[in-house]
Amino acid sequence: MDLKSILNKVNNHTPTILGSETFSKFAVLIPLVMRDNEINILFEVRSQSLRRQPGEICFPGGRIDDQDKTEKDAAIRETTEELGISKSEILDVHPLDYMVSPFGMIVYPYVGLLKNSTMIKPNPSEVGEVFMVPLTYFLETNPEIYKVNLDIQPEKNFPLNLIQGGQDYKWRTLQMDEYFYSYDNKVIWGLTAKIISHFVEMIRDV
């Protein structure tokens, strides 16, 4: 291998997130709904029959499949499957900043307009119910933010003798912000709340 080949290889490389090929990738949609001349955000309550996070509040979305050409396609597909609507009912879909979680997951959020909310027929195997919150609520309400500490625990056979400091190595303390909104006896938190907060800050001065 010569120097020119190495430099050509690097020059033709498209940067991505290191290690992201092993990450789980998900896409979600923030559905905007016009009701009584007011913009609302639609949320789902996950079915109690689901194995993961039953009863929690979320946006339509899910894992990106091989059949999805893009992250946007995945967000739209999941929304049609969960809300029982056709693709033609979802308009003006645009990306927000994507999120990398400390748990090996990348989430690609999108925002889009649902043309006719009366067409929604939630899939009961995935969705327990849907509800709407006026966008003005989020514009006028700051989320409550709490810290979650993440402990670093090296496995038993970790070679501490190979690193400077050994047993006394000072691992960096990791913290994660968890966001909470409370509306009409419903608690919106976690990634869903963080995505809302990002969206609201993005449009606040519109």
Give the number of domains: 1
Gross geometry = globular
- What is the gyration radius calculated from CA atoms? 21 Å
* Category from helices, strands and their pairing: alpha+beta
Q: What does the main sheet amount to?
A: 8 strands, mixed
Distance between the termini: 54 Å
Number of helices: 4
Q: Strand-residue fraction?
A: 35-45%
Show unreliable segments. Answer: none
Q: What is the assigned CATH homologous superfamily? A: Nucleoside Triphosphate Pyrophosphohydrolase
CATH architecture: Alpha-Beta Complex
Keywords:
206 residues; alpha+beta; Nucleoside Triphosphate Pyrophosphohydrolase; 4 helices; 36% strand; metal ion binding; manganese; NUDIX_hydrolase_dom; NUDIX_hydrolase-like_dom_sf
Characterization of the model:
With 206 residues, the chain is of the alpha+beta class. The chain has one domain: Nucleoside Triphosphate Pyrophosphohydrolase. Helices cover 20% and strands 36% of the residues. The model has no long low-confidence stretch (mean pLDDT 93). It comes from Aquibacillus halophilus.
